[in-house]
Each structure stands twice: as C-alpha cells, then as structure tokens.
C-alpha cells in the first residue's frame, strides 16, 4: 500500500499544491514566501489524502 500511496502522492501533491497557489493568487497573495507556503501546505495535505486514496483503492 505504501508503494501505491507514494505513486499517488506525486499526482495528488502537484494537484493540491497548484490549487493552493491559485487560491492564494486569487486571494491577493503576491509575495514569494506566501506562495511557497501555499504550495507547501498543499503538499502537506497531500500526504494523508494519498494514504486515504491508496487505502480506498486497495479495498
């Protein structure tokens, strides 16, 4: 299950990080650290999300 979660993490992390950056940009954040923080937050949220998706896929 860890291999599946690691594979899913690449897809989920990039999706959530990009979504968080777009939300930050729409909210008016223009600084580098704010955008990096948003991307980091998206990548951090992707860890439990990819584990939950892997668990759901494995049944």
Write a compact overview of the structure shown.
The chain has 2 helices and no strands. With 59 residues, it is mainly α.
Topology diagram in text:
Elements: H1 2-27, H2 32-58
Helix pairs in contact: 1-2
Which key terms come to mind for this protein?
59 residues, mainly alpha, 2 helices, 90% helix, elongated
Strand composition percent: under 5%
Mean pLDDT: 96
Q: Nearest-angstrom radius of gyration?
A: 13 Å
Counted beta strands: 0
Separate helix tally: 2
How many domains is the backbone divided into? 1
Basic shape: elongated
Q: Would you identify the regions where 5 or more consecutive residues have pLDDT less than 50?
A: none
Percent in helix: over 70%
> Helix- and strand-based class?
mainly alpha
CA distance, first residue to last residue: 10 Å
SSE sequence, one letter per element: HH
Largest sheet, in brief, is: none
Description:
The mean pLDDT is 96. The longest helix is centred in the C-terminal third of the chain and has 27 residues, at 32-58. This protein has one domain. Helix content is 90%, strand content 0%. By secondary structure, it is mainly α. The termini are close together. Helix 1 packs antiparallel against helix 2. The chain is elongated.
